[in-house]
Amino acid sequence: MPRSKNKVASKQRRKKVLDSAKGYFGRAKNVYTVAKNVVEKAGVHAYSGRKQKKRLYRSLWIQRINAGVRPHGMSYSEFIGKATAKGITLNRKALADLAMNNPEAIKAIVDQVK
Description:
The chain is mostly helical. The protein is 74% helix and 0% strand. It has one domain: Orthogonal Bundle (c-terminal domain of poly(a) binding protein), CATH 1.10.1900. It has helices at residues 7-20, 32-69, 76-86, 92-101, 103-113. It is rod-shaped.
């Protein structure tokens, strides 16, 4: 009896990898053995990128808050320390949004914190 290789499943597996490699340059888009390695590497970068995105956004929020409170005579660290002491529980994302889009609100918060 001949050995069954399950052609359907192996073709689907290859097709899934080659579909993921769509748009890549050179043999990476159409040669399975090359595409497999490139897609795996891309997955590694995507995973680490999802972690880095959180760090980048937090640092962006901190910069925006700092830029928003500086004109009112305060630094970021001073502002966050005093806001925490006063019990203001707005997170950095919300504070950054206020600093960018609503300068009057950030001024009111800074006056409350001082």
